Amino acid sequence: MKYKILAAIAALALLSAACNRVNNKAGIQNDRTSQESGQQSTAIPQTGTTTKQNPNGPDYFPPQQAESQANSEMASQPEVVEVQMTASGFSPASITINKGDYIQFANVDSAPHWPISNDYSGFDAKASVASGKYYRFEFNNAGTFSYYDYLNSTEKGIVIVK
Questions:
Q1: What class, spelled out in words, does domain 80-161 have in CATH?
Q2: DSSP per residue over the chain, as a string?
Q3: What pLDDT, in 10s, does the model give residues 35-72?
Q4: Rg of the chain's alpha carbons, rounded to an integer?
Q5: How far is CA 100 from CA 25, 117, 129, 140, 146, in A?
Q6: What is the bridge-based pairing of β-strands 80-86 and 89-91?
Q7: What span, in angstroms and rounded, lies between the C-alpha atoms of 124 and 148?
Q8: Of 7, 39, 83, 111, which residue is 20 to 30 A from 72 by alpha carbon distance?
Q9: d(Cα 18, Cα 22) in Å, to the nearest integer?
Q10: Residues 67-90 pLDDT 10s
Q11: Please, are residues 103 and 97 in contact by the beta-carbon 8 Å criterion?
C-alpha cells in the first residue's frame, strides 16, 4: 500500500512539474518574441504560475479528478508477490492476494520444484523450476485454491484471491 501512495504522489508531482514547464516556456517565448521585434516586454514573469487549459480538452483535469485518476490507475496495477520454494516447502504456505495479481514462485532451493494446482485451471509450471529460477502466474479468479509441488506432493500451499 505504501508503494501505491508513493507512486500516486510521484505521478502528481510529475504532472505539476510538466504544467509549470509548459507555462514557463510560454512566458520565455513571449519575452523573446517581443525583444526580437524591438518592443519592451511588460509581461509579468510566469514562474510558478499555472493556467487552465480548455476544460473540454483532453489534457485538462481538475486537481481532484487528476488525483482520483492517479489513484484509480494505481489501484488497478497488479502486484507481484513472491512465494519461495524451499527444501521445507512453500514460504509463506498461505497467501492472500487481489484478483489480477501475480505470484512469483522463486526456487531458492538447490533442488528443482514444480508448482501446480488441481483447483485452479491453467496453474501449472508444466516443467520443473531450476534452482535460482522462478515461475510467475496471474490469478484472475476469486476464491481459495490449494497448490502443491508436483515433485514432492507433501509440500503444499494455499492462495486466497479476493
A1: mainly beta
A2: -HHHHHHHHHHHHHHHHHHHHHHHHHHHHHHHHHHHTTPPP-PPP-TT---PPPTTSTT---HHHHHHHHHHHHHTSPPEEEEEEETTEEESSEEEE-TT-EEEEEE-SSS-B-EE-SSSTT-B-SSPBPTT-EEEEE--S-EEEEEEETTEEEEEEEEEE-
A3: 443 434 334 344 444 444 444 455 545 555 545 555 55
A4: 26
A5: 42, 17, 23, 5, 17
A6: antiparallel
A7: 10
A8: 83
A9: 6
A10: 555 555 555 789 999 999 999 999
A11: yes
**Which residues is 156 bridged to in the sheet?**
148
Q: Do residues 151 and 126 touch, judged by C-beta distance below 8 A?
A: no
Grid cell for residue 161 = 484471491
Sequence-distant (6+) residues with CB within 8 A of 10 are none
Residue 46 CB partners (closer than 8 Å, separation 6+): 23, 24, 26, 27
User: Any residues with CB less than 8 A from the CB of 139 and at least 6 apart, and which?
Assistant: 97, 99, 100, 101, 102, 103, 120, 123, 145, 159, 161
DSSP codes joined into one string, 104-132: EEEE-SSS-B-EE-SSSTT-B-SSPBPTT
Which grid cell sits at 18?
510538466
